[in-house]
């Protein structure tokens, strides 16, 4: 907002944005700048009062159309479909007339409505989060006042056990692949930990053979990452690169058109590969295998977190239980009861010093 004159008249004008984000211009009906500034301050005060007490009464249908349009631009298709499903269940229960009709109390009733439909707890939590996200977007657009949505809590669900493949099962999957392109899909999951969307978006320009690594562009998270290639993955990519006809690496669908492979296609037809191999598998299980084998071989969780592209290390902690050897070693370092031991610092120095060990051999029990 600002105060200024225009060429058409002597009066001062104020520019501001209304509640719909449209720029407006208002005449202050004065030639005196001091008076114009006072009127301008009063305009701001009244506008803020109206903004706090009388939000815009946008209809639910108008908001829904705008929300889905913006989501179709900056969100993935599966995210948009999940939002549409959440809205359909909400309108099935009670279609609101205005956006303001959706309150935390109504959302709690919505959750109870979903429970009665025998929908799984995880799915219910996902649908409730969709409605919360929609309302947060409405608050950001200043259509409704901010409310405390934390009162609508999630349904407690048990964290599932992480499942992963053994090296022998990965060999069976590779042997059952109907083409070299499907072998690349299996290796990208099991040897590089790529998500299905990252597989379908991977281009040959992202394969850095000189530095032996893959560049993973931002997909589910906002950060990119680099993943080193194993020898098996590198050999498969080098072989495919020689006969590559378009920019995308994964070519299990529509290889002649050069289009990006649909992630849903990968998920669906990977089941045929798993069935042919006689292995109980799903596509994301390959990513679990990549992380699990790293942890089992002593790789720190922080490193695994960076390789997987997790936003926080808490997401990687689901694999922490797969490092039992490290836990056992930590417990074995505790002092033994009933024995007189030197301090931790002295003990560490003596155990690592050859001279101390030689003195122990020479003087026997004096060193115990």
Describe this structure in words.
- With 368 residues, the chain is mainly α.
- It contains 15 helices and 6 strands.
- It is elongated and about 85 Å long.
Regions with little confidence, pLDDT below 50 for 5+ residues: 341-368
End-to-end Cα distance, whole Å, is 81 Å
Number of helices: 15
Structural class: mainly alpha
Number of beta strands: 6
Q: Tell me the β content.
A: 5-15%
The largest pleated sheet is described as:
3 strands, antiparallel
**Helical residues, percent:** 40-55%
Chain-wise SSE layout:
Layout: E1 2-5, E2 12-17, E3 23-27, H1 33-53, H2 60-74, H3 77-93, H4 104-116, H5 121-140, H6 167-176, H7 180-190, H8 196-201, E4 207-208, E5 213-216, E6 225-228, H9 231-242, H10 263-277, H11 283-296, H12 301-308, H13 324-332, H14 344-351, H15 354-363
Antiparallel strand pairs: 1-2, 2-3, 4-5, 5-6
Helix pairs in contact: 3-5, 4-5, 6-7, 6-10, 7-9, 7-11
Features:
3-stranded antiparallel β-sheet, single chain, mainly alpha, disordered C terminus, 368 residues
């Amino acid at each position: 907002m600002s105060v200024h004159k225009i060429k058409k008249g002597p009066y001062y004008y104020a520019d501001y944005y209304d509640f719909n984000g449209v720029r407006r211009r208002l005449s202050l009906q004065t030639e005196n700048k001091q008076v114009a500034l006072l009127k301008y301050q009063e305009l701001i005060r009244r506008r803020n009062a109206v903004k706090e007490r009388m939000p815009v009464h946008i209809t639910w249908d108008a908001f829904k159309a705008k929300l889905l349009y913006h989501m179709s631009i900056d969100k993935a298709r599966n995210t948009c479909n999940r939002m549409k499903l959440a809205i359909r269940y909400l309108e099935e229960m009670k279609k609101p007339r205005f956006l303001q009709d959706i309150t935390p109390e109504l959302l709690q009733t919505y959750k109870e409505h979903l429970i009665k439909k025998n929908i799984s707890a995880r799915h219910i939590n996902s649908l409730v989060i969709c409605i919360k996200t929609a309302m947060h977007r409405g608050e950001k657009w200043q259509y409704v006042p901010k409310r405390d949505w934390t009162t609508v809590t999630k349904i407690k669900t048990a964290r599932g056990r992480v499942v992963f493949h053994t090296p022998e099962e990965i060999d069976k999957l590779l042997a059952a692949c109907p083409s070299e392109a499907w072998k690349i899909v299996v290796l990208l999951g099991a040897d590089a930990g790529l998500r299905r969307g990252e597989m379908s978006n991977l281009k040959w320009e992202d394969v850095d053979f000189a530095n032996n690594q893959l560049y993973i562009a931002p997909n589910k998270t906002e950060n990119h990452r680099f993943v080193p290639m194993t020898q098996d993955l590198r050999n498969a990519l080098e072989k495919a690169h020689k006969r590559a006809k378009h920019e995308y690496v994964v070519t299990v669908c529509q290889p002649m058109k050069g289009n990006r492979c649909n992630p849903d296609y990968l998920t669906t037809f990977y089941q045929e590969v798993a069935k042919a191999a006689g292995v109980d598998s799903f596509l994301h299980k390959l990513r679990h295998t990549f992380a699990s084998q790293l942890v089992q071989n002593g790789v720190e969780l922080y490193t695994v977190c960076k390789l997987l592209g997790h936003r926080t290390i808490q997401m990687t902690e689901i694999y922490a239980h797969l490092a039992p050897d490290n836990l056992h070693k930590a417990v074995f370092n505790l002092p033994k009861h009933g024995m007189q031991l030197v301090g931790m610092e002295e003990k560490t120095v003596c155990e690592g010093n050859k001279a101390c060990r030689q003195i122990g051999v020479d003087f026997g029990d004096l060193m115990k």
